[in-house]
Amino acid sequence: MPLIYYIALSSALFAIGVIGVLIRRNAIIIFMCIEMMLNAVNLSLIGFADYYQAVDGQMFVFFVMTVAAAEVAVGLALIVAIFRNKATVYVDELNLMKW
Known about the structure:
Blueprint: H1 3-23, H2 27-52, H3 56-86
């Protein structure tokens, strides 16, 4: 499969993720959009690894998947803790970091 297909699909997924992070106010949806952006990067890494016949891209994919799993574990724990205290997951209604 040509490299341009990987790059086009990866760019589209990354753009959808960025738009989701910028537009949506629900913290869980924002996390899902961040995961979509990480998977878009993984797809491009796999495409480049296939194109250059190298294993480096696949190793980076495993690293990104590890970071994404840690991000989900910590992020969901934070969202659950915030929801227990404030009873909302909308980022506009949260003012925990304001003075």
